[in-house]
Design brief:
Blueprint: H1 2-46, H2 59-62, H3 67-70, H4 74-77, H5 82-89, H6 99-108, H7 115-126, H8 136-147, H9 153-167, H10 177-185, H11 190-193
């Protein structure tokens, strides 16, 4: 009788646990669904003539909003790297985003994204020529974007030289991913500034 009672108690506890677990899972799924709907609404606001109210089939991966329209998003409009960010996250490499691309972008730039993911994409953004290194030309391009071409050519050359000198551990005149990661992780404000909020 005691064994039977223990089994019944365990069964009741188990059912309560499963019920609570399923309820929590449903809440998480509902929250995720609500977030995706909010992002879809924002994506559609950029180009309501291109993006349908409800996406079906493979539309989330095939309908592209042109880069020029995406650059007008208030969250990107003032960012000097907006064009490069869109190029990095677009499957076509030209900055024309699908809804899936937009979700990826917002996921990486969310405050909850892991640091490693943020560093990986920051490296891709700064690697303007796509050669898997950040060289003087990449640093020069970044400087020009950040300063709106207000530095003299001599000042740009000096900053590029100093940046490479301080971070280039192996002495090859450019930064590898590991060297970039080492530098960026020492920047105290990197995580707090590498985000976009909708």
């Amino acid at each position: 009788m005691l064994k039977k009672l223990k089994k019944i108690i365990l069964l009741v506890v188990y059912k309560c646990y499963v019920k609570d677990f399923n309820h929590e899972q449903e809440k998480r799924e509902h929250t995720e669904s609500a977030k995706i709907n909010k992002v879809h609404k924002r994506f559609r606001e950029v180009s309501p003539d291109i993006v349908p109210k409800q996406m079906t089939g493979d539309e989330a991966a095939t309908i592209r909003v042109p880069r020029e329209q995406m650059e007008k998003l208030p969250e990107l409009k003032e960012n000097p790297f907006r064009t490069r960010i869109l190029e990095v996250f677009s499957r076509d490499g030209k900055g024309n985003l699908t809804f899936e691309d937009f979700l990826d972008l917002l996921s990486v730039f969310s405050e909850q994204a892991p640091r490693d993911i943020k560093v990986f994409y920051a490296f891709k953004i700064y690697d303007f020529d796509g050669d898997q290194h950040i060289g003087p030309a990449d640093i020069e391009t970044a400087l020009k974007l950040l300063t709106h071409n207000e530095l003299s050519p001599e000042e740009v050359a000096q900053v590029c030289e100093k940046a490479v000198e301080e971070a280039d551990v192996d002495g090859d005149g450019k930064l590898s991913y590991m060297e970039f990661e080492h530098v960026i992780l020492r920047a105290p404000d990197f995580l707090s500034t590498f985000h976009i909020r909708l």
